[in-house]
Amino acid sequence: MEQRLSVITLGVADLARSRAFYEQGLGWTVGGAAEQVVFFQLNGIVLALYPRADLAADAGVPAGEGGGFAGMTLAHNVRSPQEVDEVLVEAQRAGGRLVKPGVAVFWGGYSGYFADPDGHLWEVAHNPLWGLDAAGNVSLAPGQGE
């Protein structure tokens, strides 16, 4: 298997609500949609929104209602601590819930968390140890792509 991630699919309770959060609230552009799925083309990866029960059925697992920590987070790296705070405010205005305000963290960066309407956790982080190019592509090597 090649070392690559192609699509992240979020199981959502209300597809229209989630689409509005990402599209209208956060200002993302829909790259494709059908009756039961919405796709956002990100930098080198696709984010898909799909009804939670249908996604569970597709995988052949019980849907459950979630709640609590799901064992993973999504992350959005930015160029400065100030931008972390700006994105957290933007997410709240869009209908997201602030989980943790931006704070200086032990590894030398600055980060905070918000939850989307379905409770999916997003970390917004400034990591001065990594590179971030003009297109938003992150690199584990500092200064790469800048």
Helix content: 10-25%
Radius of gyration: 16 Å
Uncertain regions: pLDDT < 50 for 5+ in a row?
A: none
Largest sheet: 4 strands, mixed
Portion in strands:
25-35%
The run of helices and strands is EHEEEHEHEEEEE
What's the mean pLDDT score? 91
Distance between the termini: 29 Å
Query: If helices are DSSP runs of H or I spanning 4 or more residues, what is the number of helices?
Result: 3
Total number of beta strands:
10
Shape: globular
Structural class: alpha+beta
Strand order of the largest sheet: 1-4-3-2
What does this protein look like?
This protein is α+β, with helices and mostly antiparallel strands and 146 residues long. It has helices at 15-25, 52-59, 81-93, and strands spanning 7-12, 30-34, 37-41, 46-51, 74-77, 97-104, 110-115, 121-126, 131-132, 138-139. Strands 1-4-3-2 form a 4-stranded mixed sheet. The protein is globular, with a radius of gyration of 16 Å. The mean pLDDT is 91.
How are the secondary structure elements laid out?
Elements: E1 7-12, H1 15-25, E2 30-34, E3 37-41, E4 46-51, H2 52-59, E5 74-77, H3 81-93, E6 97-104, E7 110-115, E8 121-126, E9 131-132, E10 138-139
Could you provide a short overview of the structure?
The protein is an alpha+beta fold. 22% of the residues lie in helices and 34% in strands.
Write out key terms for the chains shown.
globular, 4-stranded mixed β-sheet, alpha+beta, 146 residues
